[in-house]
Specification:
By secondary structure, the protein is mostly helical. 82% of the residues lie in helices and 0% in strands. The longest helix is centred in the C-terminal third of the chain and has 60 residues.
Length: 222
């Protein structure tokens, strides 16, 4: 038995059913990630206008501790980054800016968690389904080659056509399932990428406000 024949026998014995189970498992995992990410992003968002107003009031009073406490009441990404800068307010604008850049990089890691899985699944699920289809078509032709001539009551050409069409129709299910799995993953990946960009862009509002406060000349008498 040569290499090609050995590979063919392995594929025929395994069949295409495991491909469908694999795609089903990927779909369950992707749905779980989509739900988790939606809840996570909702929790890390905030009313930016209201938070900016409250923070500005605290900073206008030169109450750094009160500003940090105000930011601590919010679980948003913007608040966490601004609070990191205010914690190093004594070091000046440069130190606060570096602290906020570090906090932003850390927050980005959390925001982008699991997105690579959704992107990879969206790109490759159709190919997994296509692989199942190829295995199914191979099985249909193999069965056709061994059994069509033994079927009685119909012309061999008619039997061949019926067997091939039926088997190919079954095999195409894997491709359809692969596309079905890929669609929500791709849509969610693109949506979440925009959400991450939006949340990180919102942090610039509070970060610039903090740097503006720290850049003001201090009155020694205050």
């Amino acid at each position: 038995m040569n290499t090609v024949e050995a590979i063919k026998q392995v594929l025929l014995r395994s069949g295409a059913a495991w491909v469908l189970w694999l795609l089903a498992g990927c779909l369950v995992i992707s749905v779980a990630i989509i739900v988790e990410r939606c809840l996570f992003y909702r929790a890390r968002d905030c009313d930016l206008r209201a938070l900016t107003r409250r923070l500005g009031t605290r900073l206008a009073e030169r109450n750094v501790a009160g500003a940090i406490e105000e930011l601590g009441r919010s679980s948003s990404v913007a608040a966490a980054i601004a609070a990191a800068g205010l914690e190093l307010a004594a070091g000046g604008p440069a130190a606060a800016d570096k602290a906020m850049q570090s906090a932003a990089a850390l927050e980005r890691r959390g925001l982008e968690r699991w997105l690579a899985y959704l992107g990879t699944l969206g790109n490759n699920a159709p190919f997994i389904g296509l692989f199942g289809t190829v295995v199914g078509v191979m099985a249909s032709f193999e069965e056709l080659g061994h059994g069509a001539a033994r079927v009685a009551g119909a012309a061999p050409t008619q039997v061949a056509s019926q067997l091939v069409m039926a088997r190919i129709a079954e095999a195409l299910v894997a491709t359809a399932v692969g596309i079905l799995v890929a669609l929500p993953a791709v849509i969610a990946f693109n949506y979440f990428q925009r959400r991450v960009a939006s949340l990180l862009a919102a942090t610039e509002v509070l970060s610039n406000l903090v740097l503006a406060y720290l850049s003001q000349p201090r009155n020694p008498g205050v």
